[in-house]
Amino acid sequence: MTTGLIPGEQPPDPGPTGGLPQQRREPVGHGAVHGERGSRSSVITARAAASFEPVGRSVASARSFVRDTLQGWGQADIVDDAVVLTSELVTNAVVHAGTTADVVCLRSDDGVRIEVADHYPEREVPLQGSPATMGSLDREGGRGLQLCAALADRWGVEYTPTLKNVWFHLHLPERPVGTRAAGPSLPVDVLPLADARVRVAVVQIDRTGAVTSWNEDAEELFGYPADQVIGKPLTDLAAWPQTPGTNTGIAEALQLSRWEGSYGMRGANGRITPVYASHLRVRDAGGEPSTVCLLVRDDERAVLQTPLRAPASDSSSSESQSADPFEVFIGSPAPDDLDGLLQRTVERARDMLDADAAFLLLATDDETELEVRASTGLPSARQRFARVPVEAGPGRYGSARMPAVHDDLAVVPGAVPLLNGTGMRSVVTVPLKVEGRLTGSLGVAAESAGRYSNEEALRLQFAADRIALAVESARLGELERLRRGSLSFLVEASDLLAGTLDRDQTLALMAQMTVPTLATWCAVYTIADQASDPYLSYVLHEDEELIDGIKSLLSKIAPPDPVPSPGARVWTAPGELAHQAALRTSMRDLGLSGGPTPPLRSGIGPTLTTASAVGGETVVLPLVARNRVIGMLTLGKPTDEHFRQEILELAEDLSRRAALALDNARLYSERTAISQSLQRSLLPPELPLIDGVEVEVIYRAAGEGNEVGGDFYDLFPISDGAYGFAIGDVCGTGPNAAAVTGLARHALRLLAREGLSGPAVLERLNSAILDEGARSRFLTLLYGEMRPQEDGSAELKVVCAGHPLPLRLRQDGTVEPAAEPQPLLGVIEDLELYEETVTLDPGDVLLCVTDGVTERREGTRMLGDDGLADVLTTCTGLTAGAVAARIMRAVERFASDAPSDDMAILAMRVPEPHTD
Predict the structure, then answer these.
(1) Rounded to an integer, what distance in angstroms lies between the CA atom of residue 459 and that of residue 135?
(2) Tell me: domain 44-120+143-171, CATH 3.30.565.10, correct?
(3) What is the DSSP string of 839-860?
(4) How distant, in Å, are the alpha carbons of 277, 308, 460, 471 from that of 334?
(5) pTM metric for this prediction
(6) Average pLDDT in the 49-55 region?
(7) Backbone angles phi, psi at 123, to 5 degrees
(8) How confident is the model at residue 800 (pLDDT cuts 50, 70, 90)?
(9) Same fold for the pair 328-475 and 500-587+607-673
């Protein structure tokens, strides 16, 4: 913006005459005063002056000089306007005119006068309405003086032979009683009336974050007596963040040397009280650090809040830094801190126009909607991330692309949808644009009508123009960080979901990944098949005490429709039911339900807390896998909160991955159930009870998820008083070996009950195995028939076809084989097998095992037949169950590795007769 040379033009020789009187111009309609420096009626009470070299960084230095001067004089109310005008005028002098700029600040009893003089007075000043500025509305020349006309109370231009001096005067505003800015001393009878004593909670925190001090005002504000909170972390009570713009965690804020901001405190009644807090970190005489926190209700923030003061710019900084587009208006916040930048913007916009509320909306990626990103003086929890279409935005012409001033919203209901029900009546809104593209909208509002005019709109538009580029840059930075974070989040989620095939664990992972990262609470509905209704399978809330209440509430409403269309859709049923439940509870507790009035607060806590937890926006995302809806993922926010579009898009990506993982878990569970059912059919249902013989079996199948492998056993009745028993081992492990196991076990029962002898049974089984062709496997088998005798012994007829020999343990502790080895089955067609007879006397044990027991290895060592016999010699006098257990324990302890082969142990013992 130039009032001197057009950029790039060389200054002409000023000549001897210097500045000419005819070059003076008076701004139209502003009554500018010229030549009054010696005839001012007001008394000058303070003066500050500085000169700045004709370099770009001088602009920032001049801004800092004026800002620091006025704040030092205690006149922060006019700092914004003064700095804006000074910035423009110094830019004209040092950048465009190319001369030194002299800045003088004069304080008087009626305001502040600031003068900016350059040393090149010959060029004519383009003024508003002159031909130089009438050619194009976009012309930059002269706009600095247009700002003087818009923002200053009086202004003018003075010429001397060596100087051109542009000055402006700013009155100190008349502040009504009770407004935010400090006002004059007032009589007691006109001071605003407070509802109650202003309470300041004083809380002290030690280095670990635990509360060490809690004063009476804290008890009154939050309902907790000191003995209930001392020693507990403050983070357990803080709801962080309560208002937009809080981009630092509570734990980090407590470690800072100085911090001010807003958050919420959970009271004893379960409700959140918005507070404004000031943190100061100190250390005691012993050097132990702690943090002192002063907290007031958020609407009483003026009690604690100090005036915002921007740091002075470094005179050695680069020109690009000195020309920071938002330093003037915002006070130099960190450019990559979008939330802090936006919140500071709305707070300064509110204060600049002495408004009651302010809000800022940013355009979505497709620029079809505006999303509330910061507000002050409004119910921020309800407004944050709410959306309005661009063409139905807050503008006068039904579009956010145009500035607008509404004198009275009561006359035009719904003109600004975001302000419905807030009590605001007058509002001014302006667009934020970057290179002609709409990037957002900034608005301020007041509770009284007719507060704003086009002049305020011009001031706000100027502020919006200065901040738009910085906001867009910070928004793009945030978007990039969010995208990177989203990719990391999805990669981690995919790894976790891929690491389990358990359905319940997958449901739990889905919920834990969404809460609290994406939502405050979530519920997962699953659908068994197309004919089934959705079923509530899992609920999670960041506060575990609310989970049961949410389950109860969701069980009272119909589940969302399983619509396969992608994307999130709003589900209003939970919020409506929560509101109704809270209303009924409140009426009952107030004795308005018509029934007996319960004691105060009876039942109100859990019901109202649950209602608050699910009373915000609720969205449903379909879980679609293999072209079928298998469930719904429901995400919710607490009362009146909305989801950001970026969060919904991330949740949609997560739902696709979670749906596939959940369907994989379902398929795996189904196949596992089928496999286990088939495997169980290969084992005998239960062992029969045999009079005069103790029997015990221990079976271990190798491989994860296998209940039956290549080893098998059986014990079954053949005829009156006779029982068949078998223990065998099919070559290999796993499902293929289990198939031969089933053939062998069932064939043994059928053939034995036909009255065939042991050799005949095994020969026919051998033929059946060979008939399987390529699927056949060789089989070792010990088969026998047992018949208890009247004298207390038991007669056994056994055939050992390639199987480890059975061992007989006598009462005297000797161990010997009870059979001879014979050919195994499934190898040759013509077998010549024979049976052997063994008599077990009272106290004797017959131990039968598979080779998984005898071939147990630890390095080069193997248990073997001799090792098994040694263990068996220690089992004299034990029952059959104790013998089998000792053998298994010895096998397991023989090696540290898990067994690699199936194992079966069959122990039979003839007990000694009882003696009286």
Answers:
(1) 23
(2) yes
(3) EEPTT-EEEEE-HHHHT-EETT
(4) 21, 14, 22, 11
(5) 0.45
(6) 87
(7) -70, 135
(8) very high
(9) yes
